[in-house]
Design a protein that fits this description.
With about 140 residues, the protein is α+β, with helices and mostly antiparallel strands. About 35% of the residues lie in helices and about 15% in strands. The strands form two sheets. The protein has a three-stranded antiparallel β-sheet. Strands 5-4-6 form a three-stranded mixed β-sheet, with no helix packed on it.
Length: about 140
């Protein structure tokens, strides 16, 4: 059973066939699929699943805090099941590929008190941008 399925079950989330398929599609390392990509993969496993069900299920998983909604530039939102381990994202400016990265250190510690402007900071989202090896090779 995937980590996401285990977490959802642990929260007492009612596991319908549709919800299970969406969670299974999101299983894996460095998964950052759009809702449409989740739907396309879910249809392969459960042909009768509707786009609305996928969108609603993703919304519920985000509300539960078990899936992160990642926005990069003006591209479609992507869904990241790595909601338990704090991390940043490395985004390819060419193809849009996204990878989770776990740099050492605490980004909050790098923000001096005078740069917080009195805010109580509750989280940090860092996005590194560049070209993946495939896009860099094409650009060369």
């Amino acid at each position: 059973m995937s980590d996401l399925l285990e977490r959802l079950r642990g929260r007492g989330w009612r596991m319908t066939a549709q919800r299970r398929v969406v969670a299974e599609v999101l299983d894996g390392e460095h998964v950052h699929l759009t809702a449409d990509e989740v739907h396309a993969r879910a249809v392969d496993r459960l042909p009768e699943i509707s786009r609305a069900t996928v969108y609603n299920t993703l919304g519920e998983m985000v509300s539960l805090g078990e899936v992160l909604e990642v926005s990069t530039d003006r591209r479609a939102k992507r869904y990241d099941p790595n909601a338990r381990r704090p991390h940043h994202h490395l985004v390819c400016a060419g193809c849009g590929a996204i990878r989770d990265v776990h740099p050492a250190g605490n980004p909050l510690a790098d923000l001096p008190a005078e740069e917080r402007f009195g805010f109580t900071v509750s989280g940090v989202e860092v996005t590194y941008r560049g070209l993946c090896p495939d896009c860099a090779a094409t650009a060369a």
